[in-house]
């Protein structure tokens, strides 16, 4: 920056102390600092980390960063000590122009958890701009006939600074003819007029050279100068005169071309051609003013010529000269100040800065999604902007500072219900009618692993025929995961267990990706009728989630086993016909046995007879109950059997006399029955019992015996408990009662 050489050492010390001044305050959710413009690189602004309540050690881990709309490199933060400092040259006039307030708005963002802070750094003005005149020389023409106290308008200076640094005062170099008069206008502009305090004489001095100096109110003061060149003319007596020296006009911006601004009226007391007036823009009028307005030289009407934009310039000063048509014209002067009125002609501007996109579906309520900054070039109500969000979304807008909003999460998200949102943000100003702008924002919800794979049903029943080929596909399990990407990748595995003496994995396997279940070996219904196991489905999330399903595999029987003869637990003596047991009988043996006995002779051809033996097994200690009728019937049958045998022997003897010796020998053997065959006398049957080999025992070590008795040709052998006393044999019709009382009954039928 450039300063006047007239600065004193004391002023330099004062400036240095001001440069080191920075103030912060907390309020309305923000931190406020101030810094002087044009300070050198590295100048301390504030301890931003401490003022925001952040620890120095967490600045880097929490990704401390700072954002500023359009001014990113002006300020910087030292992450080692948390100090905010000036990083590059700050020119207040470049940042804010002539605005009374000038601030740099910063947004400080830290993660884990996400926090957003608003920091305002006010840029203080220093007196670094001297007053400047638009022209280096101002030329005036004054008639020598002008009376004392005549006034001539002068162009003032401007200062780019603000506040007291832009408050100007003027002084004119000492002289005997002219003085300076400064008036303050209601628009806070100065009206400079050169006042004639002594009549001039062209013949004495044709040209006067003056120096006009503008001095600002800064410390130290800065100045600007302009040369005033005054030419003295011969002229008539009266100059045109306006009824006002200053005209204040208010005009709406965007007024169409041709709109009348004002009709000026000046009068001249002279007569004839000296009274005729021509209206002209003064030489003091700038080119940008001439591009906006035009004056009719005859009528004095000022009309709009170009586009008037309040946001570009809201105040125009037009110096008008009224010149008569004499050979030595006289000029009257006035100033027209046109102040534009703002119209709501600028739509709000909106800038959206995304921070946390995509949004995790498990993000906590209050998470900041994006930052929204609004602006409107209009002023007053027309520049006041509000922001709204489309309804029925789990987000809301929170006003964090003037024209700054944060888009935050209002309620919990579920990606499986809604995977993305299209938000419509509307910015509307306070004008009438209001103007608005909208912006669409696409918010994607990022998946987290919050859903376990799920099967359609908790249990499946599978039927597989036995003797399947090894590796055959028997079933396919399928689980669905509502998550996305790797969180939805499902892999399958067996829940290992023992099946008897073998591991489950030796029977079946499951493909990790397809869920197909394979039988690794042929299944045998006779060995394993039901195979029950579980398959686990697990996703690829971190941490992974899983669930199980139960499979019941029924092995269906096939006719793969040929019938096999089982050893019968009885045997019959070859020559004696005695029936006995070959092993101990137990519970596994059938309670009812049916034996078929074949009797064969040695004749040519051999003759045979068969007998059916029905056995009912009873527990040891139980005795068959025989009624008197049963015993009597048994005795009668035994007597009838003896008679038949006698007749048979006589018949055989008669026939045997005609046969060879062999037949006689056979007849003799047939008739001579040994005592061991159980023949008993009539009315007193003898019980023939099996030996100890013929007994059987249950698991309770109970024992029974099988007994037989003689009778007629159709002999009934009845097995009784050893404790049964002998008695008469009754009628055959009651033998079924013995079966019901666990008595074994043996029937021998001989067929010749």
At the first level of CATH, the class of the domain at 454-556 is Mainly Beta
CATH superfamily of the domain at 454-556: Cadherins
Question: Any guess at the CATH architecture of the domain at 454-556?
Answer: Sandwich
Shape, per Cα inertia axes: rod-shaped
Average pLDDT figure = 81
Summed up:
It is found in: Cell membrane. This protein is mostly beta strands and 752 residues long. It has 7 helices and 53 strands.
Structural notes for this entry:
This is Protocadherin alpha 5. Keywords: Calcium, Cell adhesion, Cell membrane, Glycoprotein, Membrane, Repeat, Signal, Transmembrane, Transmembrane helix. Residues 64-133, 157-242, 243-350, 351-455, 456-565, 570-626 form the Cadherin domain. It is a single-pass type I membrane protein. It holds the Pfam family Cadherin. By secondary structure, the chain is mainly β. Among the domains are: 31-124, Immunoglobulin-like (Sandwich); 132-233, Cadherins (Immunoglobulin-like); 241-341, Cadherins (Immunoglobulin-like, Sandwich); 349-446, Sandwich (Immunoglobulin-like), CATH 2.60.40.60; 454-556, Immunoglobulin-like, CATH 2.60.40.60. Helix content is 9%, strand content 39%. The strands form 18 sheets. It has a five-stranded mixed β-sheet with strand order 1-2-8-7-4, with no helix packed on it. Strand 5 (75-78) and strand 6 form a beta hairpin. The longest helix is centred in the C-terminal third of the chain and has 29 residues, at 628-656. The chain is rod-shaped, with a radius of gyration of 65 Å. The model is unreliable at 1-28, 625-635 and 676-752 (pLDDT under 50).
């Amino acid at each position: 920056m450039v300063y006047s050489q007239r600065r004193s050492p004391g002023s330099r010390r004062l400036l240095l102390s001001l440069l080191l001044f920075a103030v912060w305050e907390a309020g309305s959710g923000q931190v406020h600092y101030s810094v002087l413009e044009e300070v050198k690189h590295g100048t301390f602004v504030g301890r931003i980390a401490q003022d925001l309540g952040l620890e120095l050690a967490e600045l880097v881990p929490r990704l401390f960063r700072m954002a500023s709309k359009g001014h990113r490199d002006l300020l910087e933060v030292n992450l080692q000590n948390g100090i905010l400092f000036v990083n590059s040259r700050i020119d207040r006039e470049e940042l804010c122009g002539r605005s009374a307030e000038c601030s740099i708005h910063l947004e400080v963002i830290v993660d884990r958890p996400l926090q957003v802070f608003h920091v305002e750094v006010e840029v203080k003005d220093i007196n670094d701009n001297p007053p400047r005149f638009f022209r280096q020389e101002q030329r005036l023409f004054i008639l020598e006939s002008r009376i004392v106290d005549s006034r001539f308008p002068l162009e003032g200076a401007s200062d780019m600074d603000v506040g007291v640094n832009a408050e100007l005062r003027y002084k004119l170099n000492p002289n005997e003819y002219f003085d300076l008069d400064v008036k303050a206008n209601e628009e806070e502009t100065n009206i400079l007029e050169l006042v004639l305090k002594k009549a001039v004489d062209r013949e004495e001095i044709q040209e006067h050279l003056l120096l006009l100096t503008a001095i600002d109110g800064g410390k130290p003061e800065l100045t600007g100068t302009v040369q005033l060149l005054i030419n003295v003319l011969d002229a008539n007596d009266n100059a045109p005169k306006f009824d006002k020296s200053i005209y204040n006009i208010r005009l709406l911006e965007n007024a169409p071309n041709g709109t009348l601004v004002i009709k000026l009226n000046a009068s001249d007391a002279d007569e004839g051609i000296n009274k005729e007036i021509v209206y002209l823009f003064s030489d003091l009028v700038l080119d940008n003013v001439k591009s906006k307005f035009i004056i009719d030289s005859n009528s004095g009407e000022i009309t709009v010529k170009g586009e008037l934009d309040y946001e570009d310039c809201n105040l125009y000063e037009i110096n008008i000269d009224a010149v008569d048509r004499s050979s030595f014209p006289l000029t009257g002067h006035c100033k027209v100040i046109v102040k534009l009125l703002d119209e709501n002609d600028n739509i709000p501007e909106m800038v959206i800065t995304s921070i946390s996109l995509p949004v995790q579906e498990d993000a906590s309520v209050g998470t900041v999604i994006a930052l929204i900054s609004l602006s409107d070039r209009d002023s007053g109500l027309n520049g006041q902007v509000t922001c709204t969000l489309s309804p029925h979304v789990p987000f809301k807008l929170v006003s964090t500072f003037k024209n700054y909003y944060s888009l935050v999460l209002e309620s919990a998200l579920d990606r499986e219900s809604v995977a993305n949102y299209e938000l419509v943000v509307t910015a509307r100003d306070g004008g009438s009618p209001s103007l608005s702008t909208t912006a669409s924002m696409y918010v994607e919800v990022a998946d987290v692993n919050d859903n376990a794979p799920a099967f359609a049903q908790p249990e499946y029943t599978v039927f597989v025929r036995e003797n399947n080929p090894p590796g055959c596909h028997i079933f396919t399990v399928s689980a669905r995961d509502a998550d996305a990407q790797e969180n939805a990748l499902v892999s399958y595995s067996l829940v290992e267990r023992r099946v008897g003496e073998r591991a489950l994995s030796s029977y079946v396997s499951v493909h990790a990706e397809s869920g197909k279940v394979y039988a690794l070996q042929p299944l045998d219904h006779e060995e394993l009728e039901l195979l029950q196991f579980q398959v686990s489905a697990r996703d690829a999330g971190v941490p992974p989630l899983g669930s199980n399903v139960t499979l019941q595999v029924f092995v269906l029987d096939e006719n793969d086993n040929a019938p096999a003869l089982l050893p019968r637990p009885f045997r019959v003596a070859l020559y004696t016909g005695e029936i006995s047991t070959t092993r101990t009988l137990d519970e596994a043996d059938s309670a009812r046995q049916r034996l078929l006995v074949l009797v064969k002779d040695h004749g040519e051809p051999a003759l045979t007879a068969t007998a059916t033996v029905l056995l009912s097994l009873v527990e040891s200690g139980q005795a068959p109950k025989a009624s008197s009728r049963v015993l009597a019937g048994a005795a009668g049958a035994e007597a009838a059997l003896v008679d038949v045998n006698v007749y048979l022997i006589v018949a055989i003897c008669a026939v045997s006399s005609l046969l060879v010796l062999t037949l006689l020998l056979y007849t003799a053997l047939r008739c001579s029955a040994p005592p061991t065959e159980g023949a008993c006398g009539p009315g007193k049957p003898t019980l023939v019992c099996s030996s100890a080999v013929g007994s059987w025992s249950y698991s309770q070590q109970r024992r029974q015996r099988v007994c037989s008795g003689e009778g007629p040709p159709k002999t009934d052998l009845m097995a009784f408990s050893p404790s049964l006393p002998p008695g008469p044999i009754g009628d055959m019709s009651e033998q079924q009662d013995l079966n019901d009382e666990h008595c074994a009954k043996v029937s021998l039928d001989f067929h010749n």
